[in-house]
Amino acid sequence: MTKVKICGLFREADIAVINREKPDYVGFVFAKSSRQVDFATAKKLAAQVDPGILKVGVFVNGEHSLIKRLADEHVIDLIQLHGGEDNDYIAILKRSVHLPLIKAIKVQPGTDLRGLDYDVDYYLLDGPVPGSGEAFDWTMISKLAKPYFLAGGINCANLEQALAVGCYGIDVSSGVETDKVKDEKKIATLVRRVKMKKGRFGIHGGQYIPETLMEELHKIDAAYEHYKNDPEFNRELKKLLDEYAGRPSLLYYAKKMTEDLKGPKIYLKREDLNHTGSHKINNVLGQVLLAKKMGKTRVIAETGAGQHGVATATAAALLDMECEIYMGKEDTDRQILNVYRMELLGAKVIQVTSGTMTLKDAVNETLRVWTGRIDDTFYVLGSVMGPHPYPAMVRDFQAVISKEARQQILEAENKLPSAVYACVGGGSNAMGMFYNFINDENVKLVGCEAAGKGVDTPYTAATINTGSLGVFHGMKSYFCQDEYGQIAPVYSISAGLDYPGIGPEHAYLNDIKRASYLPVTDDEAVHAFEYIAKVEGIICAIESAHAVAQIIKDAPKYSPDDIIICCLSGRGDKDVAAIARYKGVEIYE
Amino acid sequence: MNRMKNAFTKKAFIAFITAGDPDLETTYQCILEMEKAGASLVEIGIPFSDPVAEGPVIQKANIRALNGGVNTAKVFELVQRVRQVSDIPLCFMTYYNVVFHYGVEKFMAKCQDIGIDGLILPDLSFEESEEVNQFKKRYDLELISFVAPTSQNRVKMIARQAEGFIYLVSSMGVTGTRSSFAGGLEELVALIKQETDTPVAIGFGINTPEQVKELSQYCDGVIVGSAIIKIIEKYGQDAPKHVREYVKEMVAALG
């Protein structure tokens, strides 16, 4: 991924946004400039910069003694030479200071970039007038002998062209300023856009997958990039969503719940009313339609509770595809009715008996099977997880939830909600519920994780609250794992949230503090399941009940002027027997 | 000095073994027996809870090893023991999370320290390999590149960067013994050879001397895993001498 350097920091106020957005480098200018800092200011600012961000000192023919002092006191990690320094200057500097060097080159027509032979680690290509905010002609850049930063006039408007140049990093200063000071929003937008490149969400995401599948992933990526902008594809998908799945789903004002909880005005986004009973159909119709366009004749999918399996089997039946569903033995035992449903829809259900025999093992097995037969087969992944392009593609297909909800709440209330809530396993309904509210900064995004028997017990699936950074199932994200990186067995009453990882975009929203992820226990979820049934007459999925439970807990913190929306991701028929057993009542399906 | 080159002075027999299956002592004995039987390089598998590129045989070996209490630290100790008596080229084969969670640089430094020559990480794609590549010179380690039957459009890009050896996956799917391989393997080897002198070893599914004889005509080495694991599964602690006999027979078939 292209590195990003935010240069010219001189205000303490900018450090917080830097630490939140985490560019790779920041620059302090010690030369004459409107952004110049002295030793003391730089030292004070540098001490507050996140240790993961490297600090670059920018000098124009700078005094060696000052540079050495800054290096010795760890104020700077790299040295940028922005004046007429030659190799003699560099040789002397290197005797006393052992930090990586960047040599800035003012590029003008005729500058010989191939012939550069400074004894440094990086070059930085800048316009003829540094600090002017004016870009030079980037087509002049040929292959350089050393990695280089591109600087001069880069901003959010020409970012794509800058990244296409193929530089090691971009250097931005005036491009993220308004009225000569750093602009928080511009920094956030620019850094996020650089980090979003190539299927990344900050440090998360990526494509960590065996070579056999890589070519196919690139094909899916290319096909999706094409069809998502194809009017005909979008017309067909909308028709399926509206006429077959029953969209738009209702945004229902939960009046009784609102009155009973005496907190905010509560709306429920009724994904449980979709055909097949959950939000899963949104994603599945999109992916199976895409598979069809790619000429595939067979779809395979993993399933936990069976919701995604049933949805995939449904779409496969409708769109004439052969269908195989992989499901852990634990889950086929827990959700025997869903197994029969899938078979009724013409799918073959394969019981997975490896590992912990739950959702993660079903994903493993589906990946293995896919590796063996790619030509005619499309893997319909059920959540915003896996290797790129799946997290972005599934999010886009699920974003219809928040696209509708945002419009519906504006029509009903003429204002945006204070918060939206959704349960999170892999995180597809939550990503769908959050997505179109991400830029509405006053709308809080709350994900509700399955804490199982509690986050301080081993019987939990709360990844953000108990997991750590790792790489698994094709993505970098947070995972529940042990001290040696072995993926931990997880537990939740809800088979749909019983997964040891979380989608990479959620991991990123957590990192930048845009969304918060709170743990909800089995007990709390079961209580909420019963509560919403009695109060609103809605039997929701035990997964969705985790979000309802968090709202019950949070209601007192809101005022009656607040509006919150809860994504009811699925209906609860499938859970009735399990909840009865949990309560000590034996019933037989 | 990295020992990888020593493995390819003639046609190479590369043996895979899961560390700690059924216990670390048996693994130790098997490695030494395989060396005696003529193996050129040993891939030591650090077990992982969710080995997505493996078929049932190696999956079960991973589970047996983990249930026996094997962890990364204990596998490092195993390598240190082997290095006291052997100079055979050694690679670690594991899943990227094992390395990532330990700390990529720290893991690689440890590898150099204990005498590992290369890393084989089937779920670290070429696209993400920079995370490891950036440290390989510093710690004198090779990161093995994979080429698969689906890699036609990617061969050039991969081969140009490849060092140590190239792991050519013989067939679609996961590891496990097979009776036939994907078509076009010989053409893939030729494509690779156009780009690089890095040796090419074929793995996945190989289990008979006849297959070794056929494949080694046009590649630089063969990799055998599941067939060895099956012997260990069958004989347990008694496996080392059976493994030696099997490897001897396979090595004799090399072209």
Characterise the protein shown here.
The complex is a heterodimer of chains A (589) and B (255). Chain A is built from 22 helices and 24 strands. The two termini of chain A are 52 Å apart. Chain A is elongated and about 85 Å long. The mean pLDDT of chain A is 94. Chain A has 589 residues and is of the alpha/beta class. In chain A, helix 1 packs parallel to helix 6. Chain B has 255 residues and is an alpha/beta fold. Chain B has one domain (3-253): Alpha-Beta Barrel (TIM Barrel), CATH 3.20.20.70. Chain B is 44% helix and 14% strand. Chain B has a 9-stranded parallel beta sheet with strand order 5-4-3-2-1-9-8-7-6. In chain B, helix 6 (130-136) links the parallel strand 4 (118-120) and strand 5. The longest helix of chain B has 14 residues, at 72-85. The radius of gyration of chain B is 17 Å and the shape is globular. The model of chain B has no long low-confidence stretch (mean pLDDT 96). Classes of the chains: A alpha/beta (589), B alpha/beta (255). The A-B interface holds A 198, 206-216, 354-355, 360-361, 364, 367-368, 371-374, 468-474, 476, 479, 481, 484-487 and B 48-50, 52-53, 55-56, 59, 63, 66, 71-73, 96-102, 122-128, 146-154, 158, 169, 172-174.
Tell me the layout of helices and strands:
The complex is a heterodimer of chains A (589) and B (255).
Chain A: E1 3-7, H1 13-21, E2 25-29, H2 39-48, E3 54-59, H3 64-72, E4 78-81, H4 87-96, E5 101-106, E6 122-126, E7 148-151, H5 159-164, E8 169-172, E9 177-178, E10 181-182, H6 184-195, E11 200-201, E12 204-208, H7 211-227, H8 231-244, E13 251-253, H9 255-261, E14 265-270, H10 280-293, E15 298-303, H11 307-318, E16 322-328, H12 329-334, H13 336-344, E17 348-352, H14 359-372, E18 377-379, H15 390-398, H16 400-413, E19 419-424, H17 428-434, E20 444-452, H18 463-466, E21 468-472, E22 474-479, H19 504-511, E23 515-521, H20 522-536, H21 542-554, E24 563-568, H22 576-582
Helix pairs in contact in A: 1-6, 8-10, 10-11, 10-15, 11-13, 15-17, 16-17, 20-21
Chain B: E1 12-18, H1 24-36, E2 41-45, H2 56-67, H3 72-85, E3 90-93, H4 96-102, H5 104-114, E4 118-120, H6 130-136, E5 142-143, E6 145-147, H7 155-161, E7 166-169, H8 185-195, E8 200-203, H9 209-215, E9 221-224, H10 226-235, H11 239-252
Parallel strand pairs in B: 1-2, 1-9, 2-3, 3-4, 4-5, 6-7, 7-8, 8-9
